[in-house]
Amino acid sequence: MKAREFDQKFDDGEDVSEALDLSRARRPNQSQGRVNVDFPVWVIEPLDKEASRLGVTRQSIIKL
Fold this sequence. Notes:
Blueprint: H1 3-11, H2 41-54, H3 58-63
């Protein structure tokens, strides 16, 4: 399919997914890295309390 035809189909709201190779698709700037952070106790205690209330880990709360 030529680019002009692809653009026209896309602009018309047609499904163009069959023309795409999604096997190598990735979102830019979405890779993860590890960071260590020290929090004062007065920050950790409410985090733990909320994590316990929600039934999740402290790490999950921090990620949010």
